[in-house]
Each structure stands twice: as C-alpha cells, then as structure tokens.
C-alpha cells in the first residue's frame, strides 16, 4: 500500500527539501564570510539533496495524476479519468499548486547544474552563489508548504471522478509552454545569484560576468522560446487568430525578456571592457526581480487577465512579501556594496560601447513602458485617480517607435569598434546597406500588396537594415583573410548574427501579418462555398463525432485555388463533457508565407454555421524569428571560449587595456 | 557620500512599487468599486449598435431587472463569456449590451459570430458611458434593478459557475 501514501511521501519530501534549502541558504554564506572551507563545501551536497527530494515530490504528484488518485484535491480539480495520459502528465502544471512546484523544481535544477558545471569557480564564489539560490528556494518552498500544498487530500469524501483539466489547456501547448517559460524565468536567478555573490564578496570586477554569461544566455534562450510558444499556442488555441494581446500575463513574461536582453548586452560590455559594472549588477537584479514580479502578477490575481488563476489573497500577500524581501534586500546590498569608483576606461560618443549603452537605455525604456502599462490600472486605483483602461493602442503607440530606434542602433553596433569609431568609416561601410534597405522597403509592399503601407515599409526597412548591415560586416571580416576569414569567426559571433537576424525575421512577420491579414466572417451550410483572398472554401460535409472526453461538431471544408491541388480542412466545435465547456478547435493550413485559418463559430437560426476565415501572411515568421534568437543565444554559449576557461585570464582581463581598433575584430558576445 | 545616496534610488523606487502592489492586493479587482452600488445607473444618451439613428437613454433600464454587460470585439475574454450570457438570456434574464470602444462593423460581426444575447446593444465608441461606469476593461457587468439602481457589479469574465452561483441569485434577489 506504499502507492497509496505517495502524496504524503511527496509532502514529506517537500519538507525535507525545505530543510536542505534553509541549510544551503545559511551555512555556505556564513562559511564564506568567516572563511571556513568545510562550511562553504556544504553548498553542493545540499543543492544535490534538495534537487533529489524535489524530483521525488514532483514524481509523486505526477504518479497521483497517472493513477487517477482523486483523493488528492489538486488532482481531482485538474484531471479526469478520461483525460488522455499525456495530458494527465502535463496537468501537473495545469494550475496553481503544481506550477509552483514545477517552478521550485526548476530552480533547484538550475542550482544543481551550477554546482556541477562551476567546479572551476573559486570556492567562496560558488558557496555564495548557491547560498543566494538557497534563499530563493527556501522562500518558494515555504510558499508552497504554507499556502499552496499540491498534496492536500479530500477526505473522507473522495470524488469518484475529477473535474477535468480546463479544455483550453488540453493541448500540446500546455505540455511545452510553461516548462520553457519557467526555465527562462527561473534561469535568471543564476545571474542574479552571481551578481549578489560578487557584491557580497566585494569582488565586483569583470570576472563574475564571465562566469554568469553562459547561464544568462541559456535562460534568455529558454524564455525566448517560452514566449514564442505561448504566442503560437494562443494563436491556434484561442480561436481568433491573434498572436499577442498585451495581456498582463503576457507582459509579465515580456518584462524579464526585455530586461534580460539588455542584461546579456551589458554583461558583454562589462566582460570585454570592464565598464558598466554597477549597471550590469543592477540589471541582473532587475531582470530576476521582474521574473518575480511576473510570478506575483500571475499568481495574486491583482490584475484581471485571460490567464485566469484562482485568486487567493493570502497567496498574493505571501508572494509580495517574498518579492519585497528578495528585491529589497538585494537593492539594499547593492546600495551598500556597489563600488564607488568610476570605471576608468572611457569611450567616445560613437563607439561600440556608446551604441551598447544606447541599446541598454532603449531596452530599459521599453521595459518601463510595458511595466507602466501593465500596472497602470493598479497605480491609478491606489491613488484614487479613477480607472483608466490601457490596451493595445497604448503599447503599440510606444513600442513601435522604440523598436525602430532600437533597430537603428542595432544595425550600427556590430560594425562599430570598442572605445572609438570614426563616423566617416561607419558611414562608408553602411551607406550602401541603408540605401538598399530604403529602396527595397519602399518598393516591396507595392509588389506584394499592390498598395503602399507605411507600417509594412517601416517593418521591412528595419529588418533589411539589420540583415544588410550584418551581411556587410561578414563580408568585411572575411575579405581580408580570404576563405580563412570565415573560419576565424567564432561561434559567439555567429550567435550574435543569428540572434539579430532572428529579430529582423520577427519584425517582418509582425509588419506583414498586421497589415495584410485578411479576415472574413461568413455563413455556410453543407454544399455552399465562398471565396476569400483567392481561395475557394466549400463546405462538403458536416458531422458529429465523439472524442475521448468531448463531443464535437466537425465541418469538412474543401479548399481550392486555381491551378493548385485542393485540400480539406476540418474546423471543430467541441463540447467537453466533464467541465461543460465549449471549445473552438481551429483548422490550420500552415505555410511559410501564409497560413489559412478557419474557425467554426455558432450555429445560426436557419441551420447554417458561421465561420471565420483568415489568411495570415508571414505569421510563421514571428516564431521562426524567435527560434533563431533562441538558437543564437545557445550558439554563443557553446563557443569554445567558455569551455576552455583559463581562470587566470578571467581575473586579469579587467586590467587589460585594449588598443583602439583591436576590438573590432572581436565579437560582442 | 552623495554617490552612495544615488545608489539608494532603485531601492526607494522599488519600495514605492511594493506599496502600490500591496494596496492593489487589498483591492481585489472583482470587489473594487462598491462605490457605484446602490447608486443610479449613470445618465447616457447613446445610439444603438444596429441603428445609428435610434438613441436611447436611462429610461431603457426602468421597469425590469437588467444585466448590463460591457463588451467589445477587441476583448478576447468577452468571446469566452458569450456562452454564459446566452445561457442567462435563455433563462429569461434581460440583457443590455454596451459595445465599448469598438467600431459598428466589428461589433456587429462579433454578435453574428458568437451569438446575440442582448435585447439591445448600446454603441459607446468613445467610452463615455464606460467611463461613467468606472470600467477599466471588458467584460464587466452591472445588475440594475427595476428602479434603475445598480445592485451588483461583476468585474471580468462570468464563468459557467458564476451563472448559477452568483448572477441568477442576484437577479432573483432584486426582482420587484
């Protein structure tokens, strides 16, 4: 009967993990402060033990789902005996308690990884990093145990069946989106811990940035993927073809991404040039704080959102306290310990340093813009100034020009040298790219859409500017060394190229789908057809069918286009039996240059059905670009530089003076 | 010393943010403007969604308990709320819609596609009525009694559970 007690064992494992997290938080930090090697060495075994027990707790909850143990309240609320097995496994993070458990599991996974891969780190540094992560982990484990226990039983009245998982979440998107997003969110705790460790140790040189950079890149790549998956999921699952809503919860994931993007660039400057030190530390704190703030906004229910979670004031208060303590403490330590000395290395007003500074400022302004828009209703309400709704118009009006500004400087950055860059040379190298980008961007919309559109032209201009200036840089770099030149370019450089190109691709997607989207609401009965955007849609069949835990009305639509083979699409309207919820299951015909999107609407009075038919040009580019950005981040990490790691050079690097021009051959990543 | 004080700025800004968030937490968005309760429904003079030449005013709400629902085509959550509103209309509740910050064309398309539970929809493109109601998003619903007094305010999405547990009991409670 051991299996019947799994939830209790899981609960017990959580308590043990908390005990270890507390020890991990206190002992190594104390050891580092008093220089006791044994105490410092305590950090790793505690991180391992904590990870082990959390894996056990997580597996016991998963087992309860797999075994349909509806005596566990969380399982009863979020599963059903008819639910397919893969959704049972992913339903573990389908609601509040389980997703917090996943959060902590991933956090301890990162700690575990740090303790494995950072053996070269000085002992006290490693002890401090893991100690800081222990604090975060303790806070969240307390949060679970005190307010959100996923193992709570429903005794003695055990339900015979579960209430079922929210139908919106019964999808491949749920399987992949939250874990990716959490890997990103939580991953920023590593760079936060490194920054805090550097502050606590009083060694705010450039060394910590070198160690922290690969971790930051990986977390950033995961977050990029997580956001893209969320957007893709919303696109096909919610049934109206939007891909970004400026919803508070989406913004909550965008905030750390923007700050994290600024951070990976600022880390580069600090590592290469030893400047921006305080700024980088502050950004590391901000990025992780915004991850925590996102968690708070989502979990507390202070803002209403499509991502409805049970809203419980005690949980909100707890997370706010956690946020307050973590961020308040780290900012206080920053205020007390940040070095007073100005960085010595100066730089000209036009240089890679100055361009990266501008990039950072623009990204921070973007972050603040989104943050303000997200919490504006809260601020005004608290001040008693009335209630104002902030919607897509606000965000679009500010975000588009800021992105344009960002791209303008992004085109210049990779070609500029550290310290000083003659403006004339920059103009000579990039003048061609600018002219070509302008001409093509003005003409292309005329060829594609037949009419001039300012939005599309702006989008194409920015994307071409980014792509052409990178191309120019690659040509310049390889010309001198002939073919050998290509080999000299590091993986980190290619990572940068891929990341920047990814943004260009995403911008093309945004511009095209926003302006050339075709949308028609039609009514159809079997045997009828309509024409939309050069395609003919004919409803050939209509039937009812039943799935494992739902019944569905399915329309069969034959799509033809002159001169092409026809194909069928089957949009559905599903009715989930256990929860009584209707769902639209969209029929999609994806394509690199255009998606066909058909959603079944309501049944009309005379027996016709309303259908929403959409043509979405270039919508795939949105996510393709994000994929490229994430791949760029990963590519930069597997650069040999980080695996070689002679420790000496990391320490010495800060004092190196780089002759003007020498940096131009290097890379920012 | 002044530089050290400058380093405190982020901490102070953050402290201010926490204060706001804490107050936001105390003000549960679903309970927020009880100030409107027991007040007359604000005066308005708006055209209907279907007919730009037909204007209606507050007298529309007199004589019968009415659920006024603020919606918009741009509002994703409203689409999910429609089945519940249709169910309420089926159960005999009188519904009046306010198409908030929308275009006529989009609003009509929305009702064609997702169904129309409303006896009539007011067209509020500038958001004037929404402003008087203190709406900061959609959907929001106001239950108005036969005297035209606001008796219940529901912020956000009416869930299938809310239909049975909250809305219908409130409707019955205020029947004349």
Automatic annotation (TrEMBL), chain A:
<feature type="transmembrane region" description="Helical">
    <location>
        <begin position="357"/>
        <end position="378"/>
    </location>
</feature>
<feature type="transmembrane region" description="Helical">
    <location>
        <begin position="454"/>
        <end position="471"/>
    </location>
</feature>
<feature type="transmembrane region" description="Helical">
    <location>
        <begin position="100"/>
        <end position="118"/>
    </location>
</feature>
<dbReference type="Pfam" id="PF16327">
    <property type="entry name" value="CcmF_C"/>
</dbReference>
<keyword id="KW-0812">Transmembrane</keyword>
<keyword id="KW-0997">Cell inner membrane</keyword>
<dbReference type="GO" id="GO:0016829">
    <property type="term" value="F:lyase activity"/>
</dbReference>
<dbReference type="InterPro" id="IPR003568">
    <property type="entry name" value="Cyt_c_biogenesis_CcmF"/>
</dbReference>
<feature type="transmembrane region" description="Helical">
    <location>
        <begin position="491"/>
        <end position="513"/>
    </location>
</feature>
<feature type="transmembrane region" description="Helical">
    <location>
        <begin position="254"/>
        <end position="270"/>
    </location>
</feature>
<feature type="transmembrane region" description="Helical">
    <location>
        <begin position="430"/>
        <end position="448"/>
    </location>
</feature>
<feature type="transmembrane region" description="Helical">
    <location>
        <begin position="12"/>
        <end position="33"/>
    </location>
</feature>
<keyword id="KW-0201">Cytochrome c-type biogenesis</keyword>
<feature type="transmembrane region" description="Helical">
    <location>
        <begin position="279"/>
        <end position="298"/>
    </location>
</feature>
<comment type="similarity">
    <text>Belongs to the CcmF/CycK/Ccl1/NrfE/CcsA family.</text>
</comment>
<keyword id="KW-1003">Cell membrane</keyword>
<dbReference type="InterPro" id="IPR002541">
    <property type="entry name" value="Cyt_c_assembly"/>
</dbReference>
<keyword id="KW-1133">Transmembrane helix</keyword>
<keyword id="KW-0472">Membrane</keyword>
<feature type="transmembrane region" description="Helical">
    <location>
        <begin position="45"/>
        <end position="67"/>
    </location>
</feature>
<comment type="function">
    <text>Required for the biogenesis of c-type cytochromes. Possible subunit of a heme lyase.</text>
</comment>
<feature type="transmembrane region" description="Helical">
    <location>
        <begin position="318"/>
        <end position="336"/>
    </location>
</feature>
TrEMBL record, chain B:
<dbReference type="InterPro" id="IPR013740">
    <property type="entry name" value="Redoxin"/>
</dbReference>
<dbReference type="InterPro" id="IPR050553">
    <property type="entry name" value="Thioredoxin_ResA/DsbE_sf"/>
</dbReference>
<protein>
    <submittedName>
        <fullName>DsbE family thiol:disulfide interchange protein</fullName>
    </submittedName>
</protein>
<keyword id="KW-0201">Cytochrome c-type biogenesis</keyword>
<comment type="similarity">
    <text>Belongs to the thioredoxin family. DsbE subfamily.</text>
</comment>
<dbReference type="InterPro" id="IPR017937">
    <property type="entry name" value="Thioredoxin_CS"/>
</dbReference>
<dbReference type="Pfam" id="PF08534">
    <property type="entry name" value="Redoxin"/>
</dbReference>
<dbReference type="InterPro" id="IPR013766">
    <property type="entry name" value="Thioredoxin_domain"/>
</dbReference>
<dbReference type="InterPro" id="IPR004799">
    <property type="entry name" value="Periplasmic_diS_OxRdtase_DsbE"/>
</dbReference>
<feature type="domain" description="Thioredoxin">
    <location>
        <begin position="35"/>
        <end position="176"/>
    </location>
</feature>
<dbReference type="InterPro" id="IPR036249">
    <property type="entry name" value="Thioredoxin-like_sf"/>
</dbReference>
<keyword id="KW-1015">Disulfide bond</keyword>
<keyword id="KW-0676">Redox-active center</keyword>
